Structure formats: structure tokens, C-alpha cells
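Hey, weird one. I pasted the SMI1/KNR4 family protein sequence into the form twice and got a warning about non-standard characters only the second time. First submission, copied straight from the form history:
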Amino acid sequence: MEPEQVWSHEQYEPYIQEPLTPESLAAAEQELGVRLPFSLVALLMYRNGGPIRVTLPHDRDFDILHETIRGIGEKFPHLAKEAWWQWPDEDEGVPIPPDPHWLISFDGGGHWDLCLDYRHSPTDTTGLGIDPAVTVIDTERIEIEYPVAESFDAYLADLIVSPDEE
């Protein structure tokens, strides 16, 4: 899917990071401990985060309102290992998925996060995780995690134009 098909024409400035550079990408990947999928990097090079015009199909939307893809930068929200459920001391009793440090949230809405899931991914020669799946973590459900796609490319292929954007 081409970047102009993904990004909304609405440019909500607080969610759009500064333009992505090779240096900021490399620094983010080192900090996260992963290589971001090529197709995600291509999207972020076009526009570094913000509202999207596509969403998951209604029959596979996991009851989440997927409206943004986070970029790389300092503004909130951004790609980071900082979903609130990743910090067990913050809220006792909240279910936490196994190996939460390998889940990178790229959209979220309070109790749920849409994540790049590197928990079962191989690593490259530098030790960075590669080829993530996409998973929903929803702490308000009995089963807190739901597979969305086997890869970021498969996730992109499943997206449809949001009814708000038609």
C-alpha cells in the first residue's frame, strides 16, 4: 500500500513528528532493540506519524478504533516501549502479556494497543529483532492478546478505507 493511501489528509500536527532521518531511525531502532519493518519505515519517511485514512475491516477490528500510526520522535504519542501495561508496578492486577518488552505499540486507546510483536521473531546479525507480527493487546478482555497479521505487510494488505475518509 502506497503512503498516500495510508495517511489521512487531515494533518493533526501534535501527532506528526519531525521528518524522519536515517540517523533518527537508527537511534530509534537501537533504543527499541528492533529493526522496524521496511514498509513502516517507508510510511514514516513519507510522513512521520499521524492520523491514517485506513482501518481494520469491521469483522476483524478487535473492537478497537485504529486511527493513527505513531512516528519516531519526541512528541507524544510516538513509537516506544512505554505502553502502560508494560510497567507492572503501575497498576497491580492488570494482565500483562509474556515478554512485553518485545511489543512496540504503534497505536493505542487506553486499554488497548496495536503492536509490532517481536516475541517470536528472529534477530539480525547485530542482535536486533526483525520481521514482527502485528498483535492487539487489550487489557479489558479475558484473552488479552489477539493476532492481527503475520507481518506488517500483511497488516497493511488487510486495511480498508475508513468510512470517515470515503
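That's the output from the first submission. The warning seems to come from a hidden character in my clipboard, not from the data itself. The helical segments are 3-6, 22-32, 38-46, 152-158.
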